[in-house]
Amino acid sequence: MSRLVVLGSVNVDATSYVDEFPAPGETIHSHDYRVSLGGKGSNQAIAAHLSGADVTFVARLGDDPAAEVARAAFARFALPADGIATVSGTPTGVAQITVAATGENTIVVTAGANASVGPEVVAAEAQRIEAADVVLTQGELPVATIDALARACNAAATRFVLNLAPPVGVSAHAMAVADPLVVNVHEARAVAIGASLTDDAEVDAWRDAAASVVLGGLARSVVVTLGARGAVAADAAGAWAVPAPEVDPVDTTGAGDAATGTLAAMLAEGRTLSDAVRAAVAAGAIAVGSRGTVDSYAGRAEVLALADRMDHR
Prior knowledge:
Number of strands: 13
Distance between the termini: 30 Å
CATH architecture: 3-Layer(aba) Sandwich
CATH topology: UDP-N-acetylmuramoyl-L-alanine:D-glutamate ligase
Number of domains: 1
Strand order of the largest sheet: 5-4-1-8-9-10-11-12-13
Oligomer: single chain
Structural class: alpha/beta
Largest sheet: 9 strands, mixed
CATH class: Alpha Beta
Helix content: 25-40%
């Protein structure tokens, strides 16, 4: 099995479902409410695990009841938990999510125990990092930790995948060794990729923006996700677009994490970036078709079957 280390965040999602988002100062009623596992790190680790990777998830939980929600979810998905430790006197990370009838969402994250994943954790995981085929992290960890992980991966010649979500101010070195850097259009603009482009700019324009990242040495490769329009990507060999299949969106929460985790899993098993992006787009498309985060994720066979149909349409 391919070896993937995910160093990332764990949140417990408190999700309210509404017809429309409230205006500032407005109070509205939701028509449903759920508490479930979230956090970009745990979402991506589970997506990668479902895609067939041998995942080591390195994370921190608090010592509160929310931690038990997370541990129960890890057990349900049979995700190994030996890299997950408890931080005493600290709450588990929390995400407060509102989902509108359109499927779009707003998210407010409280870091909690995720803030305890410092550079010393990277140092302690040196052997796992060196043995991994791919290491994946996200912007929900402290910047110093992301920078330390990038240096460790570069020193060990381990492929480093950086999902800069949210787009925090990591070092130029961390960006430069990302292979790929994974961002959506909002995150891309925040790091000066396609800064003049709108969300609905032509796909070719976003593809060219991705190409400029590699040509300019900002990252070794890049993937920009475009929601319902799929994704664009670029590496040293060129730039291309991957259209998404048509789906009726129910809940977009966690769809990007499904895509990123699947992408990392495919890269870890030695697939090309082009093949990995196609599988990632398929995983994201499936995820938006039902409510929730990890419970909307598909297994390897379903994802690859859809990716194959996308390739032959």
